[in-house]
Write a structure and sequence with these properties.
Organism: Acidovorax lacteus
Shape: elongated
CATH superfamily of the largest domain: Response regulator
Pfam families: Response_reg, Trans_reg_C
Distance between the termini: 30 Å
Order of helices and strands: EHEHEEEHHEHEHEEEHHHEE
Number of strands: 12
Keywords: DNA-binding, Phosphoprotein
InterPro entries: CheY-like_superfamily (IPR011006), OmpR/PhoB-type_DNA-bd (IPR001867), Sig_transdc_resp-reg_C-effctor (IPR016032), Sig_transdc_resp-reg_receiver (IPR001789), WalR-like (IPR039420), WH-like_DNA-bd_sf (IPR036388)
Number of helices: 9
Largest sheet: 5 strands, parallel
Helix content: 40-55%
Strand order of the largest sheet: 2-1-3-6-7
CATH class of the largest domain: Alpha Beta
Protein name: Two-component system response regulator CreB
CATH architecture of the largest domain: 3-Layer(aba) Sandwich
Number of domains: 2
């Protein structure tokens, strides 16, 4: 049985989330505060985390940042961010910090359950946990280095690859990559991501023909190859 931690302070939303996930046969633990969730994560193993952004004692994104800097057992925990509708900056920031998916409020309980199910499925097929050797994200310079040399990437290509590097060890859906790279301009279709991934692969292959850096997981999304 999968175990899901829900971090949400609104009683009505928390009830909806816990009920929707419980109907899938998953064991659900609910926390009202960031500090409570921290304690739960230290003392129990979870298979996924659903977290709100605005909470009485802090931001769910702060907890997400801590998780992605934690030891591998916690760092690889699949995370779905709940974001108030229209708060595009929260969604993009969450994905840049390493969230696997996001869902805007108000949401459909069925869609929530389906997205968590997809997270669990991707986690079961996740590759190794580190980025390939020699691939480095120079975030300050907004460029990607391979063996110390900058790759000739467009802004979108850089954002896509940076999202994959940040999420090393996890399969990222096309929707998540689209939101991370396009933000408010994400009116494009999933095939836009596929097209940019294709050009990314070509540029990586030209810089290093010895290996493939991006792996396609059919029906799930993309991930970095094993480090």
């Amino acid at each position: 049985m999968s175990t899901i931690l829900v971090l949400e302070d609104d009683p009505a939303i928390a009830h909806t989330v816990c009920y929707a996930l419980g109907r899938e046969g998953w064991a659900v633990t609910h926390s009202l505060l960031v500090q409570d969730a921290r304690q739960q994560l230290r003392g129990q193993r979870f298979d996924a985390l659903v977290l709100d952004v605005g909470l009485p004692d802090g931001s769910g994104l702060d907890l997400l940042r801590e998780l992605r800097q934690a030891p591998p057992a916690l760092a690889q925990l699949p995370v779905l961010v709940l974001s108030a509708q229209g708060e595009e900056i929260d969604r993009v920031l969450g994905l840049e910090l390493g969230a696997d998916d996001y869902l805007a409020k108000p949401f459909s309980p069925r869609e929530l359950a389906a997205r968590v199910k997809a997270l669990l499925r991707r986690a079961a097929r996740a590759p190794a946990t580190t980025a390939p050797a020699g691939l480095h994200d120079d975030a300050a310079g907004q460029r990607m280095l391979l063996a110390g040399q900058p790759l000739p990437l467009t802004r979108r290509e850089y954002r896509l690859l940076a999202c994959l590097v940040q999420g090393a060890g996890r399969i990222l859906s096309r929707e998540a990559l689209l939101a991370a790279a396009w933000g408010d301009d994400s009116d494009s279709l999933d095939r836009t991501v596929d097209t940019h991934i294709k050009t990314l692969r070509a540029k990586l292959r030209e810089a290093d023909p010895s290996r493939e850096y991006i792996v396609t997981h059919r029906g799930l999304g993309y991930a970095l190859a094993a480090g």
